[in-house]
Amino acid sequence: MAGGAQHRVVIVGGGFAGLNAARGLAKAPCRVTLIDRRNFHLFQPLLYQVATGALSPANIAAPLRSILRRQRNTNVLLGEVTGFDLGAKTVSLRDGATVPFDTLVLATGATHTYFGHDDWADLAPGLKTVEDATEIRRRVLSAFERAEREPDPKARERLLTFVVVGGGPTGVEMAGAISELARQTLRNDFRAINPRDSRIILVEGQTRVLGAFHEKLSAYALNALHKLGIEVRLDCHVVGVQADQVEVKADRPDAVAAAIPTETVIWAAGVKASGLGKLLADAVGGVPTDRPGRVTVNPDCTVGSRSDVFVLGDLAVQTGADGKPLPGVAPVAMQQGDYVGGVIAARLKGDTSPPRPFKYWDKGSMATIGMAKAVAETNGLRLTGVLAWLAWLFIHILYLARFENRVLVLWQWAFNYFTRNRAARLITGENAANPAEPHRAVPPGEAVVKG
Amino acid sequence: MAGGAQHRVVIVGGGFAGLNAARGLAKAPCRVTLIDRRNFHLFQPLLYQVATGALSPANIAAPLRSILRRQRNTNVLLGEVTGFDLGAKTVSLRDGATVPFDTLVLATGATHTYFGHDDWADLAPGLKTVEDATEIRRRVLSAFERAEREPDPKARERLLTFVVVGGGPTGVEMAGAISELARQTLRNDFRAINPRDSRIILVEGQTRVLGAFHEKLSAYALNALHKLGIEVRLDCHVVGVQADQVEVKADRPDAVAAAIPTETVIWAAGVKASGLGKLLADAVGGVPTDRPGRVTVNPDCTVGSRSDVFVLGDLAVQTGADGKPLPGVAPVAMQQGDYVGGVIAARLKGDTSPPRPFKYWDKGSMATIGMAKAVAETNGLRLTGVLAWLAWLFIHILYLARFENRVLVLWQWAFNYFTRNRAARLITGENAANPAEPHRAVPPGEAVVKG
Fold first, then answer.
1. Which of A295, B3, B130, B432 has its CA 20 to 30 A from that of B62?
2. Which family does it belong to (chains A, B) (predicted)?
3. Rounded to a whole number, what is the largest CA-CA distance in chain A?
4. pLDDT tops 60 at residue B439
């Protein structure tokens, strides 16, 4: 494609999609530049384990340079992309630098959204970055500490109430993990309070949790949550978040908002695509984005009429074989990454035929509720309980294995399983030394999308 | 001692001294309250391993509540002590609460000092807290990232220059670890720079490194540092720190200051005691503190005429058998903790005889320079090289073993040893996403003493 000089592929975003695309180009005759704001790839599905003190950030993150060390045609660039010039074929970085490309791959993912209530962000942090996770860990652990010192029973109850908003996999996992933290790990740690008295409330807008799964699995999950002592409020929306309460409202015309006194709210609802998607769609021209801001892509993951521009992962919206949009999950992102890497590599070898369209191979999905409690479904086969949990464990460790952390994580989990311990229960960060002070916002720079 | 109600022992500080004192009271007929600003005990001697990406904070920290979970007479209180009322026998906390005591044990340790140049703190962070360590990790790793993107050779050289101030054990360990990071771990990670070109400079004001050790061991350490490619400037003082350079001046009357261009300075010099020491000494009255602010204590670690007030660990200054002040090292703190716990327990059993004075049992000291390079001395026996390193490793793992992290740490070290990897190379924190921006200060709340 390019003339004398080597073809330059610029990949923005080192998540599942971008990293797999880069790996697919390992042997291609091109120069690959992977740009990310962070120096590590993060295994987001286990972030809730960091937020609840079971794992350390380094257990679920691996330096991008380390992963791509031996891929000599690939360069990792730490920087924040702020714009595109598709005429000049460059991306611009926040520090003013421009990076030229022959082929552009954009995979900057998604973050959570507060549905227009961005003022809730400080009071109800989401769970997308390592900093989010350590901030949530700080808040949850500090709530117990403050409760231990609180003489007023009402205030103590409020401090021991934890509200998780959103009943998808992340919300269910967070609620389950907080329950285990309170009822198992911390059960002997305090003197004035009994952590087992904690209330954990999961608020979900739909009529069931894990709405993307089969109804039977939702029912199993609901039952498992109840067994863990978690109150689940279905058909319920959050209509207000204050420093000392959350207001929820049932999804009925005659419903009135009810206040749940709490100081610890975790946001696991809503998806918003990285702002770079809209920016790129506008630059290409005539390319629609959907409500969460995802870019509509062609069957080969290119955008509009630009065969040199790819968008993939959570940032893309693509129609699956069943006519429905593909879900924003890690397997789609990984497979799209593999696919796009292959498409570019084939082109560079001189293959001029149009590529076969991307086809998502749905190997199934799974979610865990707690120790030995999970759901999994694949090709009509549905699993629950210990077997589903072991499958979940196996697949997650298999994935992490690629990043050298396998044995560590396995050990730490085994340790937690048998001792009900969570060794990484550290209250760290700026406000760590003053747990009695009100919650501080996650630094604004951290809450935004990766890219 | 106390009347009907149970005797209340308040221990301030959950470091080596305070924690050991608390443990010594496990079976004593009293109520123990351990107050710390942080929710975890930190194994400070390995903090440099966090600062250089080899270990995660949770590997070297254990929640105080978890350690003392089964000690039913002991209560952990997360709070910051701000003052003492020795008449009313209470300590006051920052949030306004007061905690009554019958016996007070103060062990809030020490931090580094800039010898009157507190303005250097932002540019040359020290290594006392978990936040210090992750901040230094961020700076060191970011320097390589910025160098990779820096076109100007002079600026690149400056970014690849790391200055460690202080040639005691911490400084020597930091310099050695940075050298291994640059020359081993990162050697294949970059494309535009060669991390092996890094300059690591250790500045020491005395005529030798590891001044507390025998001269032969200092000579071995100096040689080992040279072999790791570290430039050692002896007899040299830092006279200025700016954002882009450090000014050092030889210890000769005719010397002129020389500038070392660098953007990464790590402070491992100077000791300043927690401010609570002076506060308590003044409250007791007539009790001297030395220049670093340590409290002069009686042979039984009590203060002045108060037999109910103990000061120990790095906060205390006590004369050893050789007439010299005991060194501010972990073994002294641990032994004083054991001792004071025993003294209080004996009193509570009705023992009214004056306690035998505290006697430090010097089991020896050790410092590591790098993988398989260390020095150790005990009772005139001096070890260097692999044997000293294995001894160092063994003793540190033995200690960590008490906090359940043993196998994890052992595994991670073994892994690092054979792969020269450092898995925890994460750039995290507020400024993590903008590595190109100038260094930010460690949050002021974090740089102060623990207590």
1. B432
2. Belongs to the NADH dehydrogenase family.
3. 76
4. no
Q: Which two tokens stand for residue B339?
A: 């001792």
Annotate B37-63 with DSSP letters as a single string. Answer: SSSEEE-GGGHHHHHTTSS-GGGGEEE
- The structure tokens listed for B2 are 């106390």
**Could A39 and B427 be called an inter-chain contact, meaning their C-beta atoms sit closer than 8 Å?**
yes
Which pLDDT value is given to residue A396? 80
- Residues 74..93 of A with a Cβ closer than 8 Å to B: which? 75-80
A428·B57 Cβ contact <8 A: yes
Which residue has 């505290």 as its token pair?
A: B358
Which chain A residues have a beta carbon less than 8 Å from that of B410?
none
By Cβ distance, the residue of A56, A59, A443 closest to B430 is: A443
* Contact at CB, B411 and A411, closer than 8 angstroms: yes
Query: Rounded to 5 degrees, what are φ and ψ at B412?
Result: -65, -40
Contact by Cβ (8 Å): B97, A221: no
Q: Indicate yes or no: CB of A446 within 8 angstroms of CB of B434.
A: no
Beta strands in A48-160 (DSSP E): 61-63, 74-78, 81-85, 90-93, 98-100, 103-106, 110-111
Residues of chain B neighbouring A148 (CB-CB closer than 8 A): 77-78
From first to last of its 451 residues, chain A has per-residue pLDDT tens of 444 579 999 999 999 999 999 999 999 999 999 999 999 999 888 899 899 988 888 888 888 998 898 899 999 999 999 999 999 999 999 999 999 999 999 999 999 999 999 999 999 999 999 999 999 999 999 999 999 999 999 999 999 999 999 999 999 999 999 999 999 889 999 999 999 999 999 999 999 999 999 999 999 999 999 999 999 999 999 999 999 999 999 988 899 999 999 999 999 998 899 999 999 999 999 999 999 999 999 999 999 999 999 999 999 999 888 888 999 999 999 999 999 999 999 999 999 899 999 999 988 889 999 888 999 998 888 999 998 988 888 888 777 666 555 455 555 655 555 555 666 777 777 555 444 444 433 333 332 233 3
- The reply to whether CATH 3.40.50.300 applies to domain A118-269+365-447 is no
Phi, psi of A261 (to 5 degrees): -65, 125
B189 within 8 A of B219, measured Cβ to Cβ: no
Q: Give the residue-averaged pLDDT of B425-434.
A: 62
Active site (annotated) includes residue B377: no
Query: What amino acid is encoded at A151 in this protein?
Result: P
Determine, for residues A39 and B421 on separate chains, whether the beta-carbon distance falls below 8 Å: no
A–B: how many Cβ contacts below 8 A? 168
Question: Which residues of chain A neighbour B192 with C-beta distances below 8 Å?
Answer: 75
CB–CB contact A38 B186 (8 Å): no
Domain map of chain A by residue range?
7-37+79-112+272-348, 118-269+365-447
Task: Compute the distance between CA of residue B414 and CA of residue B422 in angstroms, rounded to an integer.
Answer: 11
Q: B182: which chain A residues are within 8 Å (Cβ-Cβ)?
A: none
pLDDT interval class at B252 (50, 70, 90): confident
B408 phi/psi in degrees, rounded to 5: -55, -50
Residue of B nearest to A55 (CA): B58
Q: How close does chain A come to B425, measured CA to CA in Å?
A: 6
Q: How far is A60 from chain B (nearest CA, A)?
A: 10
Domain A7-37+79-112+272-348, CATH:
3.50.50.60
Please report the pLDDT score of residue A60 as a whole number: 84
Can B7-37+79-112+272-348 and B118-269+365-447 be said to share one CATH topology?
Answer: yes
Assign A281 to helix, strand or coil: helix
Check CB contact under 8 Å for A38 and B189.
no
Please name the residue that has the structure tokens 């990285």: A274
Q: Give the one of B61, B95, B425 whose C-beta lies nearest to A436's C-beta.
A: B95
Cα separation, A364 vs A344, whole angstroms: 27
User: Which phi and psi angles does B411 have, rounded to 5°?
Assistant: -60, -45
